[in-house]
Amino acid sequence: MTRKAHGSRVARRSPARRKRVRRQSTTEGRTAPPAAQPEPAGIEISNLQSHVRLTAREILAIVSAVLTAEKVAGATLSVVLADDATVRRVNRDFLQHDYDTDVLSFLFESKSVAPVRAKPNGAVPRGQGLHIDGEVLASAEMAVQMAQRFGWSARDELTLYLVHGLLHLCGYDDLTPPEKRIMRSRERAILAELGIVARRGGARRQLGQKRPAKNGSRL
Questions:
Q1: Is the full-model pTM beyond 0.85?
Q2: Quick one: which H or E segment has residue 107?
Q3: Which residues contact 196 (CB under 8 A, 6 or more apart)?
Q4: How far apart, in Å, do the first and last CA atoms of the chain sit?
Q5: Is residue 204 part of a domain?
Q6: What CATH number did the domain enclosing 148 receive?
Q7: 24: helix, coil or strand?
Q8: What domain count does the chain have?
Q9: How far apart are CA 202 and CA 183, in angstroms?
Q10: What phi and psi, each to the nearest 5 degrees, are found at residue 5?
Q11: pLDDT tens digits for 17-28?
């Protein structure tokens, strides 16, 4: 399960955001990297890793696919791609879980700002009509480690992490078997919209849990 901090304001000064400031402050005397294309208002994308090549435009497409599928009315989001050490530090410092994991989400605020309209079959996306404020932090390094087990690329694995974390912000959870089935169904549907088909249980397993160490042992 992706971890959430309901009602907390931790992301305003989260380790991930503070890490970005530190990285910027250490560039003195070096050639500055090319300026990133600005993201749409309300969505901040930070790529702090070199394990999986994913552009800001591609990350934004993933975020947009989830928000559109869930009929989210508005969002203030921070999406961070990092390495195992960064994700573990956030997991430890903010959630008191000292182990590697694949994706974390922090929900700060979720409020209804638009009317909810049910589909003909009665189904309503849980994000419909909401304005959500939160952060998703995913480990690209973990995606490289896990991808081969499930028969797809590290990019697809990392995409799953982002979809999973964003769905948590929309109100989904996987604490019980019925809820897990609903969430997995939404993951598969959104991945399909992005042209990704899970193989060997890729989108059917539990995310946000303790992951194997690099030497294959359990942490």
A1: no
A2: strand 103-112
A3: 152, 156, 159, 160
A4: 17
A5: no
A6: 3.40.390.30
A7: helix
A8: 1
A9: 13
A10: -120, 90
A11: 434 333 322 223
